[in-house]
Amino acid sequence: MxxxxxxxxLLHNTGLPDCHPGDIVITHPDCVMFHDIYTTNVYRxxxxxxxxxxxxxxxxxxxxxxxxxxxxxLDADHLQYGRRFAxxxxxxxxxxxxxxxxxxxxxxxxxxxxxxxxVTDSHTTTYGAVGAFATGIGYTEMAAVLGTGEMWIxxxxxxxxxxxGTLPKGVYAKDIILRVLGDLKADGGTYKSLEFCxxxxxxLSVDDRLTISNMVVECGGKVGLFEPNRQTAAYSGIDYDSIxxxxxxxxxxxxxxxxxxxxxxxxxxxxxxxxDNVKEIAQLEGTRVDKIFLGSCTNGRLEDLAVAxxxxxxxxxxxxxxxxxxxxxxxxxxxAIEAGYIETLIQAGCMVTHPYCxxxxxxxxxxxxxxxxxxxxxxxxxxxxxxxxxxxxxLCSPAVAxxxxxxxxxxxxxxxx
Length: 417
Hints:
By secondary structure, the chain is α/β, with parallel strands linked by helices. Helix content is 30%, strand content 19%.
């Protein structure tokens, strides 16, 4: 009997001869990371458990991305606890102000094809884009992993998502995952491995794959996985032959298979107030928007900035619209500056920030007032997450965001491409 991608990754890590959905296995992570939101809790739990040293400092990463710059009284305490943990107990590296953790982990090679990775954040599923079994855990679990180097996992059942054909002009990776979430609903992938394949998927860039894996958790997914290809291997700085074993077996057992014809996709919108409240753009065209957000660990990458700059070039934002742009990492920001994207966005009237979690975390610049409508490329539109509970948030692709910034209402980007 063959195996799914999730099963292969767990077998590779544990050395077990076989596993099946529902089995409990003990993994030995290749890397773990906790970010500034949880540094205080991780530190205290680690001490409470009686540990005096992290199991392997070379496999521990701490990233400050939510709380820089500090804006609330306790923010600085979190940063101090992170540095204190590294000094007292050992951590491979601390990254402060270099970008969003879920961009930095694959970008800097901490999460690579074939790895098992645990992080104190739900969007850890992002690293499945490069072929890593990566999932979020709580701060108590993180403290235990840091002390023991072990973490139990229940082997997930899997859903195969097969997409074939060519995407129409104006349709992007964000539209793919929004369509899937609309079909599966918020609980349709709970503790499951969502595994993507097909000719459309084969043609996706690493940036595209990261977008899709990032949002797998919005239907409850444990992991969101792609088979690594040569482009993935090059991105991760490894030899493709060393991970060619990581592929779907033809006789693997999938709980469910979703099949799509890419040519039938359109731009999609996750309408207020649920991520799975997905509608075709035609149903929402003309809806007023007050603010646009381009960024987050979902869509703050170079390709996202490129498509927005392409649309906004030669245009100005609608007089009633504010647009906030936050690149996902310092490297992306530098490349976007060199390519001229940042200049184009600024000339159009956008506000560009340093790389961090930005508006997506709902605690700093850009928060919404009563009655305001935001159109964003982030991953969640929960009631009150981005400001007033009387505001509304819609989620879309960078192309839709840019086109809508010009008109001041939800707009199909096709006419601007």
